[in-house]
Write a structure and sequence with these properties.
Oligomer: single chain
Number of helices: 11
Largest sheet: 6 strands, mixed
Number of domains: 3
Helix content: 25-40%
CATH architecture of the largest domain: 2-Layer Sandwich
Number of strands: 18
Length: about 475
């Protein structure tokens, strides 16, 4: 991967495997791209060299690290359920609420009773899981569960299917998802230790039969099975299962490419995790997983505050630089106008007897003087605004108008609260040339989970104050 082909993305997902290798997934339009990294150092190197620029990372946690419980909550939606779970969790586990994080997804809705799958994760286990990501210079913004990522990877045709079994199958892992009406009911994870494809396929057949037995007799005829693996494995799976199950569909796993060489990686385990990373990205678009995040809220809040402080500092530096540049530009133009006036005066002196030429030159001098006065007024105006405007006021637009006798300005700006915007005229009473400032329009505008107040103000410019 070269600088020419560097990747910039607002959102990406990553899965770091126990051996340190990793699979990254990014979305380009409607297509998903999967990249393989040999180790964490390769990821860190790509980030340091700006070849991989990602603002927000999603990761997933193994189901085995979590305690999964079926819970019923008298709530109408997930947001309401989340608020209630904080008081329910201490009664479910002998753990302090400060020592765990949790997330939940809908399992079934009954009137005003919501049945949930609740995932509880100890914070110390989470911190151990995050070590490799931290060493790779990755600070995740969201963490979900492998089984939920896999659910998102399979398409949503399951919503029209009463019962469906989704299967991810690789050389070392087997994941069976029990799906009813589009909601995950149960996930079974198996680590495949047998180095024999036929034996592993036989295990798959056995587990599928057991899963079907768990479903009511009258619903078994409508069960749909989806199995995803590499093309090499799918051919063998079809041979073993085609006469056992009727309604079965086979899907190839995505094939990642090496980030540095661009070569395809034909490995079922990396294909398995490529499917999980793609499911992580799809989870960001799922309303059911909008509030699901196993990262501690305090950690996310701390990162948000740090980012806010950095953005504020950068904005302040940029504002000072812009004002200084404007002031310098105006000062230079003023000097040029003065110099032009002096040259014209010198030209007029030798030809005073020629009235027509003198009149023309005088008109030119008057015009330049008027322009010079106006520019000096604008320079003083910027200085007053910079000096007396409170820090909570941000000015985005200034319109200036003047004639021989009067000058006025209209200002468009923003503040964080309505009261700050309305108090702006009072703060500007100490100025020497800005008089009688009045707010003409105020409105509150939603923006990125919060809101800002946008206002307009007019005031008279006192030219004698210069």
């Amino acid at each position: 991967m070269t600088a020419k082909n560097k990747i910039n993305s607002n959102l990406a997902s990553i899965k770091i495997l126990p051996d340190g290798s990793a699979v990254v997934c990014l979305k380009n339009g409607t297509l998903f791209k999967h990249f393989y990294f040999e180790n964490c150092e390769k990821i860190k190197e790509a980030i340091q060299k700006k070849l991989l620029n990602v603002k927000n990372w999603i990761i997933s946690i193994e189901d085995d690290l979590c305690i999964c419980k079926n819970v019923q909550i008298p709530a109408n939606d997930l947001k309401q359920a989340y608020k209630m779970l904080e008081f329910e969790i201490p009664s479910l586990l002998p753990l302090e609420i400060e020592d765990v994080v949790w997330g939940c997804v809908s399992k079934k809705q009954k009137a005003n009773l919501l049945e949930l799958l609740l995932y509880i994760l100890r914070i110390d286990n989470l911190e151990k899981n995050l070590v490799n990501y931290k060493n790779s210079m990755i600070a995740p913004s969201k963490a979900i569960i492998d089984s939920q990522a896999a659910m998102c990877w399979f398409d949503k045709t399951s919503q029209n299917q009463a019962h469906q079994l989704n299967v991810l199958f690789s050389h070392n892992a087997l994941l069976i998802l029990h799906n009813c009406n589009g909601y995950l009911q149960k996930a079974d994870n198996f680590i495949l230790t047998e180095n024999s494809i036929p034996k592993n396929i036989e295990l798959l057949k056995t587990e599928l039969c057991e899963s079907i037995k768990d479903i009511q007799q009258d619903s078994r005829q409508n069960i749909k099975i989806k199995i995803s693996s590499t093309k090499k494995y799918l051919q063998k799976i079809k041979t073993h299962l085609k006469d056992v199950f009727e309604n079965i569909e086979f899907l190839p796993l995505p094939q990642p490419v090496d980030f540095n060489s661009g070569k395809s990686i034909d490995n079922s385990d990396y294909g398995y995790h490529a499917a999980l990373t793609e499911g992580m990205l799809k989870s960001a678009e799922s309303p059911d997983l909008e509030s699901f995040n196993l990262l501690p809220r305090e950690l996310l809040k701390k990162r948000a505050n740090k980012k806010k402080i950095l953005n504020t500092a950068l904005t302040a530096v940029l504002a000072v630089t812009m004002i200084f540049s404007l002031w310098s530009g105006l000062a230079l133009k003023s000097w040029r106008l003065q110099h032009a006036c002096q040259i014209i005066k010198k030209q007029i002196e030798p030809i005073k007897d020629i009235s027509e030429k003198i009149e023309a030159k005088n008109l030119c001098v008057k015009g330049l003087k008027k322009q010079f006065k106006t520019r000096g007024l604008i320079s003083a105006l910027f200085a007053e605004l910079y000096k007396f405007s409170p820090q909570y006021i941000s000015i985005s637009q200034i319109n200036f108008s003047a004639d021989n006798y009067t000058a006025d300005i209209s200002i468009k700006g923003q503040s964080s609260t309505l009261s700050n915007a309305l108090e702006y005229p009072s703060a500007m009473k100490k100025t020497q040339i800005l008089k009688n400032m009045q707010i003409t329009n105020v409105q509150q505008i939603p923006k990125a989970g919060t809101s800002i107040v946008e206002f307009k103000a007019n005031c008279r410019v006192e030219q004698n104050g210069l």
